[in-house]
Design a protein that fits this description.
D-Maltodextrin-Binding Protein, domain 2; 2 domains; TRAP-type C4-dicarboxylate transport system, substrate-binding protein
């Protein structure tokens, strides 16, 4: 082979390598959730996936595995961190104590000064994640955080507007905060996976459960509930995370797109979807024959006093662990 031919071959090889380095490799992100297919999380993840696909001409897509197909709620975070999935939805309360700072966003009586709508709380928690929550989510990249609209009691067989009637009842819960709330009301907290709640209520394993109105539709709570007590009194926090291994294998172009389509704006949009779903959830319950009750003001004031002790207990326990509780709460409620 002549020197000229060798030079041409080398030039062609260099050009091909350069072209390959500039072209994003097609990727499908494996997304795991423990929630039913019609849940707001899955609908938002589908919309996000469509956006990724549209902006990359199909080179970056998502495949969603809902309803705990890959792992139950407590294992979603480790599933992503170990590489079993690329993205997952993490319910912080499913692993008590592991996400202690994140869970503080769900405390009763605690919300940003702008309000307790999910669009507001989810955005604020996402804004604080880089400064306060990265250690709790080590090994993953937080795409966005989510805080539910305040959860309500949905019960069977007793009138929840009489707070004394909670004594001795078994209430499905998730997380340390709700465990302490239920105990403070004289009831017994029972850990039941979200997807098994309706069955547990139908069989009498529990007498009630705590969910926002929106969640009553995918978890089908109307057929097993007699009453819903309003207003909601505390929330639950979530994170949508991507494994470091998954993010690092992406091209620079795809990484930039992931960054641009997640974060506070995505959290606010998701929260707004949740807020909008509250009306539909309430209509679903009422159409199913569930009576929605409003707690009288004097009883609500009494309950607030009771729950103030829960806030104090949880925050003191977190502070004893060396967490920056005061700084975090001051920033969150600002």
């Amino acid at each position: 082979m002549t020197v000229l031919k060798i030079a041409r071959v080398a030039a062609i090889g260099t050009a091909i390598q350069l072209l390959m380095s500039q072209t994003a490799i097609a990727e499908t992100l494996k997304v795991s959730t423990f929630l039913p297919p019609k849940h707001a999380f899955n609908r938002m993840l589908e919309a996000w996936g469509q956006e990724l696909s549209d902006k990359t001409d199909g080179e970056l897509t998502v495949e969603i595995f809902p309803a705990g197909q890959l792992a139950p709620p407590p294992r979603q975070f480790d599933l992503v961190r170990s590489g079993g999935a690329d993205v997952s939805v993490v319910l912080h309360g499913a692993t008590p104590g592991r996400f202690a700072l994140s869970e503080l966003a769900g405390l009763p009586l605690v919300a940003p000064s702008a309000g307790s709508d999910s669009a507001i709380t989810s955005r604020r928690l996402t804004e604080l994640a880089p400064d306060y929550l990265t250690e709790e989510h080590a090994g993953t990249r937080v795409l966005w955080m989510a805080v539910t609209p305040p959860l309500m009691f949905h019960v069977k067989g007793f009138d929840p507007s009489n707070l004394e009637s909670f004594k001795g009842k078994r209430i499905r819960y998730q997380g340390v905060v709700w465990q302490k709330i239920i105990e403070a009301m004289g009831a017994s907290p029972v850990p039941v996976p979200p997807a098994e709640t309706a069955d547990a209520m139908a069989k009498g394993v529990v007498d009630g459960a705590t969910f926002p109105f929106e969640a009553t539709i995918p978890f089908d709570l109307a057929p097993v509930s007699d009453f819903t007590l309003t207003p909601g009194i505390a929330s639950a926090s979530f994170s949508v995370v991507m494994g470091d291994h998954a993010y690092n294998r992406l091209s620079d172009e795809h990484k930039a797109l992931i960054d641009a389509t997640t974060g506070p704006d995505r959290a606010e949009a998701f929260g707004a979807m949740w807020d909008k779903g509250e009306g539909a959830g309430r209509a679903f319950m009422e159409k199913g024959g569930v009576q929605v009750l409003a707690l009288e003001q004097d009883k609500l004031d009494s309950l607030r006093q009771t729950l103030a002790s829960v806030v104090e207990e949880v925050t003191q326990a977190s502070e004893a662990s060396g967490l920056p509780v005061s700084d975090f709460l001051n920033a969150y409620t600002k």
